Amino acid sequence: MVQYRYLGNSGLKISEITLGNWVTHASQVSDDAAIATVQAALDAGITTFDTADVYANTAAESVLGRALAGQRREGLEIFTKVYFPVGPKGPNDTGLSRKHIFESINGSLRRLGTDYVELYQAHRYDHETPLEETMQAFADVVRQGKALYIGVSEWTAEQLREGHALAQQLGFQLISNQPQYSMLWRVIEGKVVPTSEELGISQIVWSPMAQGVLSGKYLPGRPVPAGSRATDEKSGAHFIEKFLRDEVLEAVQRLAPIAAEVGLTLPQLAIAWVLQNPNIAAALVGASRPEQLADTVKASGVTLDAGTLAAIDAALGEVVYSDPEDTYTVSPARRLA
């Protein structure tokens, strides 16, 4: 069964493997398959579910709400996010203004079929709205009982520090950040993680398998598999492009004997690796079929010794990307609508 970790400097425990529905619900899979996958997650001990209003332009939240209907609400941790354009994408249908935050949380709760979410996250940093306005709106969302905690996604170390200070002044907790992180993509290690450790902020990391590249199914010198994420523009194909170089794919193949040595599959090794970092509260995983989760959850509770971690670093060598400056380019300079 999946193990649990505290989220940031709070008393909230979450499942260290968390089910996300970015490119699956209301997109890649039918609603029936999505509901079956959520049930499989619950059966495996996953109690934490992550979504966002922008996923499938709000439809993914609705599917998750239906999938969780009838479950004991107190036994779940439901996360969602706000920032990106939704609905008809008018001038106020995006960003972190007070107007958009309140309209978004109300819409998300309605679609999810719940009175509150455990974690409400700023999906990106909004350079066009004063941070004070954003954090005051989040404080009011918490005081109204619509969210228990506040998190962010892909914020820089400096943005985390400023947001944390304002949250303290306003009387609520900023407890999490949701960045991309994997064996291949380690840009948060230089600045974001040390700052987060100081502030009591955890990482909930997305793409721990580097968009599927760390599964080993993409082979050097070969066409990408038909029907894979790399062929589907709606499923984030542009996110995987940076990993599809032959030198990266060759390095990933060198991980296979290391995984075998410790009795893991390549996907399990990838997820177990991110969970070795004590600042990581959870690895976000997706699944299009229920049976995928039975394999994935075996990464929970795995300890990789120093020799294994060193072997992974040696196998990947120079293909690892770790420039902390990349964290400064993720949030758009201007809103997208």
Automatic annotation (TrEMBL):
Ranges of residues in domain NADP-dependent oxidoreductase: 17-315
Q: What is the lineage of its organism?
A: Bacteria, Bacillati, Actinomycetota, Actinomycetes, Micrococcales
List the Gene Ontology MF annotations in alphabetical order.
Answer: oxidoreductase activity
Q: Which gene encodes it?
A: yajO_2
Query: What top-tier enzyme class does this entry carry?
Result: oxidoreductase
Annotated Pfam families: Aldo_ket_red
Q: Which PANTHER family match?
A: HYPERKINETIC, ISOFORM M (PTHR43150), L-GLYCERALDEHYDE 3-PHOSPHATE REDUCTASE (PTHR43150:SF4)
* Keyword annotations of the record: NADP, Oxidoreductase
Species annotation: Leucobacter soli
What's this protein's name? 1-deoxyxylulose-5-phosphate synthase YajO
> By its UniProt entry, which InterPro entries does this protein fall under?
K_chnl_volt-dep_bsu_KCNAB-rel, NADP_OxRdtase_dom
- Which superkingdom, per the lineage? Bacteria
